[in-house]
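Tokens for chain A. Residues wanted.
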């Protein structure tokens, strides 16, 4: 699949639960999720020529966890590296205990 404004797809709750369960089975000691606030996310979303967002999978050697890095992508599929986001809030401990995605 190429890079475009319609890349990605909406999935069902059941599909999301399976993906998350499979991740937890393979990586039982990793974080479950990362949260980024809207004010921070808007730093990427408000860039000119933004077509989408790419997620790089980093690793925080101090916290010893996967640490996603978000970057905007322009209309040509190129990273807009002026704004990069990391240091998100990890789950655990900052989880939604009532979420069907957090079993």
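Reply:
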């Amino acid at each position: 699949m190429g890079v475009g404004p319609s890349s990605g797809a909406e999935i069902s709750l059941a599909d999301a639960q399976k993906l998350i369960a499979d991740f937890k089975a393979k990586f039982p000691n990793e974080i479950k999720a990362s949260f980024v606030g809207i004010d921070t996310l808007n730093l990427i979303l408000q860039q000119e020529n933004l077509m989408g967002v790419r997620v790089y999978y980093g690793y925080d050697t101090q916290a010893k966890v996967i640490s996603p890095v978000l970057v905007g992508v322009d209309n040509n599929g190129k990273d807009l590296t002026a704004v990069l986001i990391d240091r998100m809030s990890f789950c655990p401990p900052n989880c939604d205990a009532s979420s069907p995605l957090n079993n």
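The longest helix spans residues 13-26. The mean pLDDT is 92.
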